[in-house]
Design goal:
The radius of gyration is 20 Å and the shape is globular. With 399 residues, the chain is an all-alpha fold. It has 18 helices and no strands. Helices cover 82% and strands 0% of the residues. Helix 2 runs parallel beside helix 9.
Length: 399
């Protein structure tokens, strides 16, 4: 097995794992609609059952990244597959709200491994990082795209429990395959970057990470609020949703995220070609009018605008991860990606609670859209102070 072959196989598993890491919230956001009636919970109470799991998905990431840097990235990925799959299967056997919340917390804890370890692994084995991150981002969106559809089909044909059992089993089987390749030496550990870059100045790195701390929180509060609320938004504002059942609702939500994932491939190429700051901040400025216009709309127009918004929101990620890779020392990259995901999924997951609280308080989604537009505006304005960087081609020519 050559190093290049090992790298390609590793990146393939990293992309599949990215899809799995994003199964939990989109599946549960559909299951929560069934739990409202079965457990006698309000919408806010039902969707809130995943809050601890989603917080752990973020706050446990630095430890996972540190272990990936210091111990083994492939060892941590093995734990990811078996722990995440096992946690989802456990959720399917839970009977009460506290049991469901506890099982979701276990799942979120093991799922936290992917982003700091898997993305650092991807960056280490990529030459055109933006393009690789864009493709990886597409796989990441397969979770939000396929998760609701899987959940809707299994809820209508069987039970909400099957919406956790089947995906959990898929993840465990993938983990077994991964472990076999690892044992046979077809996947090996790598600690060196295929594409080496000069270290960024310390003051520029500190300034960049402080600004990213703000933009990340704003972007991910918005991301989680919309992801958690989209099934409910469509069920209330799109008139044909009730007749189409859980499958029709899930299919519409899944299509939104699938189209958004394709946009990440385009955005990744833009991140390789143009200044990262320009690509990154452009996504925030574009989100503002889309959210304001969508606040009062329903029907097919709302579906189109929701798709456009999610496309723009996710388009920021290849540039964002490229910025982190550019300014983070390679030996600490897993840890720094982990710290990033504390903000992205630890703090950002409070967007789930924001969505539920605003809906319970106002009985609708107008003010949620307006609050999210304000968050996008805040990120865009703060991001203007980020250090500028020349286009990647110009930078390479100057080195």
């Amino acid at each position: 097995m050559t190093p290049d072959s090992s790298a390609r196989l590793s990146l393939g598993f990293a992309c599949v794992a990215h899809s799995y890491s994003h199964f939990l919230l989109p599946i549960f956001s559909v299951v929560a609609l069934a739990l409202e009636g079965e457990l006698g919970l309000s919408h806010g109470e039902a969707i809130g059952l995943i809050l601890i799991g989603n917080i752990l998905f973020g706050v446990a990431a630095p430890l996972a990244g540190w272990l990936g840097d210091r111990w083994s990235s492939v060892g941590m990925m093995t734990l990811f597959f078996f722990g995440t799959g096992g946690g989802m299967i456990l959720t399917g056997f839970a009977d009460t709200a506290p049991q469901i919340a506890a099982a979701l917390a276990v799942t979120g804890l093991f799922a936290s491994i992917y982003h700091p370890v898997g993305i650092a692994w991807l960056v280490r084995n990529s030459v055109n990082r933006g393009a690789a991150l864009g493709i990886n981002g597409l796989f990441g969106v397969v979770g939000p795209a396929a998760g609701p559809l899987i959940a809707g089909i299994l809820i209508d044909l069987a039970t909400w429990r099957a919406a956790f059992w089947l995906p959990g089993l898929m993840i465990v089987v993938t983990g077994i395959l991964f472990a076999v390749f690892l044992a046979r030496g077809r996947i090996t550990e790598s600690k060196r970057d295929l594409r080496a870059e000069p270290q960024a100045p310390r003051d520029a790195a500190i300034r960049t990470f402080l600004i990213l701390a703000v933009t990340l929180v704003c972007a991910n509060l918005t991301y989680h609020a919309i992801q958690a609320g989209l099934p409910k938004i469509f069920s209330e504002r799109v008139t044909d949703m009730e007749a189409s059942g859980a499958i029709g609702l899930s299919l519409r939500v899944g299509l939104v995220y699938l189209l958004a994932g394709l946009m990440q491939v385009v955005a990744g190429r833009l991140a390789d070609r143009y200044p990262l700051k320009l690509v990154y901040l452009g996504t925030f400025f574009l989100q503002i009018p889309v959210l304001v216009i969508a606040a009062n709309l329903g029907g097919p127009t709302l579906v189109a605008l929701a798709t456009l918004f999610v496309m723009i929101n996710l388009a920021a990620q290849p540039a964002e991860n490229s910025i982190v890779a550019r300014y983070a020392p390679s030996r600490w990259r897993g840890l720094i990606y982990g710290l990033k995901f504390i903000l992205a999924f630890g703090v950002g997951s409070l967007g789930i609670k924001l969505e539920g609280a605003v809906y319970d308080l106002t009985g609708g989604f107008f003010w949620l859209f307006m609050v999210l537009a304000g968050l996008a505006a805040t990120a865009a304005l703060i991001g203007l102070f980020m250090p500028s960087e020349r286009a990647r081609g110009v930078l390479a020519a100057a080195e």
